[in-house]
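Hi V.,

Quick status before I head out on leave. The structure for the redesign project is tokenized and pasted below; the design run finished overnight.
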């Protein structure tokens, strides 16, 4: 099963549920697209320092191999090994870049895919953060609010001047 690390922005504020849509789930393991097209993969994930290191090492490797007058087969094997290293270390480069920025690692989750990892993480995370008293959460199983509960701010009785209905509806109590 794949292993995911969960990262959150450091400046999320005092409310722990404020930045949950910005959480990053980084899958550990081999990344095929980083192996096949490392340069494009680094640009797509905006890993600028890793991109700079990738370009510098690629150029330095090619220059060193050409100065040593290595044949094309050996160059291909060296660059294939470099691409293989990129595929295996792509997740580590993402985690390193996130840790350099304003991100912190929250948890490690084992799941079949990213959706299952998110589900497992948030189930565990909300249980730890006592989501019962969260003012931003909505109770999906509760009854809808009523207009005649005096404790609710929107339950004011309508004033007599507001009895008129605007639109194509008849006035209340009038026969057709």
């Amino acid at each position: 099963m794949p292993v995911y690390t969960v990262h959150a922005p450091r400046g999320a504020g005092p409310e722990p549920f404020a930045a949950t849509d910005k959480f990053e789930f980084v899958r550990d393991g081999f990344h095929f697209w980083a192996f096949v097209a490392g340069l494009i993969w680094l640009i797509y994930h905006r890993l600028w320092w890793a991109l700079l290191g990738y370009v510098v090492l690629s150029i330095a490797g090619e220059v060193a191999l050409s100065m040593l007058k290595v044949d094309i087969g050996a160059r291909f094997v060296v660059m294939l090994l470099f691409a293989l290293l990129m595929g295996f270390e792509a997740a580590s480069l993402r985690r390193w870049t996130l840790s350099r920025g304003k991100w912190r690692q929250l948890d490690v989750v084992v799941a079949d895919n990213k959706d299952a990892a998110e589900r497992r993480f948030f189930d565990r995370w909300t249980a730890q953060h006592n989501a019962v008293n969260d003012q931003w959460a909505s109770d999906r199983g509760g009854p809808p609010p009523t207009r005649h509960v005096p404790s609710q701010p929107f339950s004011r009785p309508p004033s007599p001047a507001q009895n008129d209905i605007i639109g194509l509806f008849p006035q209340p109590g009038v026969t057709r």
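Above is the designed sequence. Residues 72-100 form the longest helix (29 residues).

G. will cover questions while I'm gone.

Best,
W.
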